[in-house]
Amino acid sequence: MTDWRELREELVAQVCERGISRAVAGALRAVPRHVFLPEVPPHTAYRDDAIVTKRDAEGRPISSSSQPAIMALMLDQLGLEPGQRVLEIGAGTGYNAALLSHLVGPEGRVVSVDIDADLVARAREHLDRAGCAGVSVVCGDGAEGYAPQAPYDRVIATVGVWDLAPAWLEQLGPGGRIVVPLDLHGVQRSVALERADGHWTSRSVVPCGFMRMRGPFAGPETVRVLDQGSDLTISLPEGGEIGDVLAALDGPVTELPTGVDAGHAQLVDGLSLWLAVHEPRWCALSETQPGRLASGLLDHRGFKTVVGIIEGDSLCVLEPDTYDAPAVRAFGPGRVRLGADLVAHVQAWDGAGRPMTAGLRVDAHVATVPAGGLLIPKRHTTLALSWDAGGFRRGDD
């Protein structure tokens, strides 16, 4: 018989290395993840990994059980207290709702909304099996929230969101807090926001990565699977045309040194964010099987991700052979010019002090648009980004 408790303790110990609170660690110990992943082998269920649970007709992942470490960090961002009412956007397997329920206790209430009826049915089944009585799972468009049980003390989204839905803000009570994986031109950051002086301001910002929200409230991102064999996928955060990428990758390649000695964590966190908010041609490529990507900024259990710039039939990526010496690999007819643009971005990021997520401040303005600064216009809000002095320290890798 599998010793679920021992596996769970190993997972909790690993997640605790990220500096999570005792309360969240207690929730991870109390809620059995394997109950919410009945088709997954025991050791897989208690890895600190995201696990895909549903794909669309084209094979793209559209639902998962999120990585426990990221879930834990977001729960700490949420700052839950016993007796609070919580609205969750994206039910998934129901596991996160169970963690929320444990944290708010028997006097609290959790409402979880998901757009897929089959996921709602499964989440209810899993929650019943786990003995979670304080959760209501509702089928509907998460962008509309769930007004019948509003107001809420906390709102959390477990899907990547392009903008803050007006319904979430309206259904959040006085003194409330919302935590969402917010799209910053294609790069996600989990942002905890509260009301302040007529707008919403961040209390904490954490790197994250979630599947995007679907339905009418989805953003303009274009995602295309280029090669089924390696699952090579390209995403353009603001949409747009995708040229003959496979032909470019199979053709001549030009390598350009960046001249910047940066560590892995700095590249994944800081440089990716810099490209996202400064380069409209920014793109990301990923693959799950060996294929055309030599190495990647993210390379975990065979899943590789690289970032770069695309323009027509040309593209370039930051694809380091070693983490301490990143280089640009450029493909296609315009590869030299495009590669030089990416090198310039790397050097500009370095010259700015290598800003990271630490020190990032996000202000969301609903009624007015601030003047100046680094702005990201959305459908319902305008995001203003800034860094405090700590965001510009080079820091340790």
TrEMBL record:
Coiled coil: none annotated. One of its GO terms (molecular function) is protein-L-isoaspartate (D-aspartate) O-methyltransferase activity. InterPro entries: Methyltran_FxLD, PCMT, SAM-dependent_MTases_sf. It is found in: Cytoplasm. It is an enzyme of class 2 (transferase). Its main location: cytoplasm. SUPFAM superfamilies: S-adenosyl-L-methionine-dependent methyltransferases (SSF53335). It comes from the Bacteria. One of its GO terms (biological process) is methylation. Its EC number is 2.1.1.77. Signal peptide: none annotated. Keywords: Cytoplasm, Methyltransferase, S-adenosyl-L-methionine, Transferase. Belongs to the methyltransferase superfamily. L-isoaspartyl/D-aspartyl protein methyltransferase family. PANTHER family: PROTEIN-L-ISOASPARTATE O-METHYLTRANSFERASE, PROTEIN-L-ISOASPARTATE(D-ASPARTATE) O-METHYLTRANSFERASE. NCBIfam families: methyltran_FxLD (TIGR04364). This is Protein-L-isoaspartate O-methyltransferase. The lineage of its organism: Bacteria, Bacillati, Actinomycetota, Actinomycetes, Streptosporangiales.
